[in-house]
Amino acid sequence: MDDSASGTQLPQELIDSILDNVYKQQDLRACALVARSFRLPSQRKLFEHLSLHPEALHGEPASIAHFERLHAIFIESPHLAKFVKSLDLRVLRAENLPLMETEVVLDILGALCNVVGLDIHAPTVKAPRLAAALVPMIGSAGLKTLSLRNDTDIQLLKAREGDLQTLRT
What we know:
The protein is of the alpha/beta class. The protein has eight helices and five strands. A five-stranded parallel beta sheet has the order 1-2-3-4-5, with no helix packed on it.
């Protein structure tokens, strides 16, 4: 953090230690605006875990507009998609599957290249485009934990050649 009066800068270790004690999303967003040295570490923490749930987003049903906003963020700042380490993909009602197979959602999934933990709670058997978009992520050597729930297509496991530390079904 630059102090305009003294021109001093906090060591990155101290900034990281401060952010390790910030848990609320709104507080992390504020930290990202404090100073340039806080921006990337705050963004990294903000985007570390991503949940794609069409049923509810902030207490209201998700619409394509919610996903378009996230997509626009990733287009404008592609480095943010690289911060996503954990993805929770959850579709509880079959009528929401078409939303998860839109180009916007498929593009979001395609931008996520550093996922190490993946939780799929969706009937991908009934969503072939969604399943196809998940294959590269599942086949990635970086993926360490995979949870398949509900009617997730077990054929997705055929994309997995590397060793998983954890597989939950």
